[in-house]
Amino acid sequence: MTVTNIVNTREIILGALMAITEEEQYCHIVLRDVLAKYQYLEKRDRAFISRTVEGTMENMIQIDYILEQFSTVKVQNMKPAIRNILRMSIYQMQYMDGVPHAAVVNEAVKLTQKKGFYTLKGFVNGVLRAAERGIGEVRFPDAERTPRKYLSVRYSMPEWILQKWLAQFDFATVEKICRGLWQESRTCIRCNLSRAPKETIIEKLREQNITVKEVPYLPYALEISDYNYLQAINAFKEGLFQVQDVSSMLVAEVAAPKWGDYCIDVCAAPGGKSLHLSDKLNGSGYVEARDLTDYKVSLMQENLERTGRINMTAIRQDATVFDGASVEKADILLADLPCSGLGVIGRKPDIKYKMTEAKQQELVKLQRKILDTVWSYVKVGGTLIYSTCTIGADENQYNVKWFLENYPFRLESIDPYLCDALKSRTTKAGYLQLLPGVHGTDGFFIARFKRVK
Ligand SMILES: C[S@@+](CC[C@H](N)C(=O)[O-])C[C@H]1O[C@@H](n2cnc3c(N)ncnc32)[C@H](O)[C@@H]1O
């Protein structure tokens, strides 16, 4: 890496962090756009950008805690550019062994000057020099005396989320969830078995030197690594697999469509679960994949064309608007609803800072509104699957309880569709809460209801 590159990459990192933290943009989208724009950079510079942006976001609460040990100014009171320069510098000191601390300080000071903050060069230098000397000695909150604060700083998890989880799970489980979300997440793929057998797909992947591993819980789920980008993988271009976490795959598994079933997925984009249902129907039946906007429909359309599905359509339909033509039409209705997404923080670290308790309550209202609108689309005797990619009773168990109290449905055991390792008291009752760090998947919730009259 040349010195010019170091300066440039750090400026790019600062730009990305500013967009995410100050303009509410999504980390994965900002990074995708930045990497597309700077394709000409060397692979290691691109890797440095991704890792520093993602790592800084992932560890921001801890980084701010460390910064406040060395700064007399509170992080929230600093100028946004300055606090982000300091954050990315602390991330490099704390988590990147290969970058000398002295270089981190020098580059931060240069960047401060380059951004026009001449008068704050001394401040940045002072804080980072102090951190350089003292970062190894920082005392973190004590797990026994202040368990919530400890978890919050150790795993950079906002306290309101921890408060809810600690009310539902014991401390050890919450720590496992946090650790699971904090560790690097893997890329899982679902083999489109109606297109090719798993062995053929594995062979094609290995031909391109992609590392392939089996994944627990489902025989057609694989983990892939050592690839450059998805669109360059032949098996992907040929529609032989879909990127999907194994937790999401369990939705269609639990829905268990029978030959010829009519399925409606009311919140379907980008289409992962609809495509899975369609794959399982193997050319029979039908899947109506609905979502709110033309853009979302176009995402599904792309996937439909790539995977060559003939028994599925993507359509624009607002799930909060009653559709009389759908009444008692569905053998299976999938309600994979918009949610707080706390189960996928491992992949999208900024979710944890952007979500608030108030926004979560709004989402609960939306989830209930959608369920209230669509329940009657299910045939009597048909199945409704409710799922979210979040952890916590508000959007999961409490919604199940509310739904059972207000609509003609009962829960149905999902044990027949699960491997032994996932069976429990709740799966027998009809629902499953998957926890990162416990199950080794994203955080995910699935409930299966049968319409009774
Ligand atoms: C959890 S995602 C669905 C993921 C999808 N089932 C899959 O497996 O790929 C929730 C989706 O709900 C959609 N959505 C939000 N509000 C909606 C509404 N009122 N009507 C229909 N779709 C909506 C969002 O656009 C988003 O694509």
UniProtKB/TrEMBL annotation:
Its EC number is 2.1.1.176. GO terms for cellular component: cytoplasm. Keywords: Cytoplasm, Methyltransferase, RNA-binding, rRNA processing, S-adenosyl-L-methionine, Transferase. InterPro entries: MeTrfase_RsmB-F_NOP2_cat (IPR049560), MeTrfase_RsmB-F_NOP2_dom (IPR001678), NusB-like_sf (IPR035926), NusB_RsmB_TIM44 (IPR006027), RCMT (IPR023267), rRNA_ssu_MeTfrase_B (IPR004573), RsmB-like_ferredoxin (IPR054728), SAM-dependent_MTases_sf (IPR029063). It comes from the Bacteria. It holds the Pfam family NusB. Transmembrane segments: none annotated. It catalyses: cytidine(967) in 16S rRNA + S-adenosyl-L-methionine = 5-methylcytidine(967) in 16S rRNA + S-adenosyl-L-homocysteine + H(+). GO terms for biological process: regulation of DNA-templated transcription. GO terms for molecular function: RNA binding; rRNA methyltransferase activity. S-adenosyl-L-methionine binds at C267, A268, A269, P270, G271, G272, K273, D291, D318, D336. PANTHER family: NOP2 YEAST -RELATED NOL1/NOP2/FMU SUN DOMAIN-CONTAINING, RIBOSOMAL RNA SMALL SUBUNIT METHYLTRANSFERASE B-RELATED. This is 16S rRNA (cytosine(967)-C(5))-methyltransferase.
